[in-house]
């Protein structure tokens, strides 16, 4: 299950990067490649689709990240097993006198 989430997060991240690179920060973006501004619905629909896809992919990444964190997070109230204490070997000069 962990591997599936990791693959989905990586895939969504790559798609998100590609969508962001398609957008033009000044409002043009991919929609300018489809013809004149007076075209009926084509420009508006393209911008809406890219914007919705961007937010959807960001949401998917967020939800999957939170799900992975909750699945693999050890609750704080459980005791952590401690390693057994080992005795230090005595050096040659430290002999125990009885």
Structural description of this entry:
By secondary structure, this protein is mostly helical. 53% of the residues lie in helices and 0% in strands. It has helices at residues 2-22, 42-72.
Main beta sheet strand tally, sense and closure: none
What is the helix/strand order? HH
Helix/strand-derived category reads mainly alpha
Poorly predicted spans: none
- Cα gyration radius (Å): 28 Å
Gap between N and C termini: 60 Å
| Count of alpha and pi helical runs | 2
Mean pLDDT: 77
Envelope shape: elongated
Question: What is the strand tally?
Answer: 0
Descriptive terms for the model:
98 residues; mainly alpha; elongated
Topology, pairings included?
Layout: H1 2-22, H2 42-72
Helix pairs in contact: 1-2
Q: What's this, in brief?
A:
With 98 residues, this protein is mainly α.
